[in-house]
Amino acid sequence: MICLKICKDSTAEDLEPIASAVHSLLGIPTTIRSVNCKGIRMERGEVVDWDYTGPILEKVLEDKTTIRTVPKEGVYNGKAVAVTPIMTPDGELVGSIGVVDLVAALDILSVFREYPDIIDEVEEAKKRHT
Question: What is the pLDDT of residues 90-121, one digit of tens each?
């Protein structure tokens, strides 16, 4: 039997199955690291860095809270990212994981201008559920 466990000292190799699952599910750049070891960065279906950390991964480790922002430095400089802490059930911080935030990158107004029926569908759905 194989059991996947992570801790503060998990290596990039230990974290790769988690990053791979998230990256495969979402199809967007994914980063992960533990508290005491650098981690990995995945893009286009493969690990592109086995010794990775970034400014927002570090900030999340420091603040122990989810951060959605646009970094001013690092590999994802100028791109919206979402990064969250990885905590044990007891509340112990073991790492952080992040993705490029595609939702923040969308120009919602242009989407609604190009697809005006979306607004009508949302309004109809609201009426049906109230």
Answer: 999 999 999 998 766 555 556 566 666 766 77
Structure tokens at 29: 């750049």
Q: b/e per residue, 40-62, with b = 16+ CB within 10 A?
A: bbbeeeebebeebbbbbbeebbe
Reference 10, options 32, 42, 41, 43; nearest CA is 32
Tell me the pTM. 0.78
Q: Which residues contact 93 (CB under 8 A, 6 or more apart)?
A: 8, 35, 61, 64, 85, 86, 87
Q: State how far the Cα of 13 lies from the Cα of 35, in Å rounded to an integer.
A: 14
User: Each residue of 81-90: pLDDT tens digit?
Assistant: 999 999 999 9
pLDDT score recorded for residue 12: 97
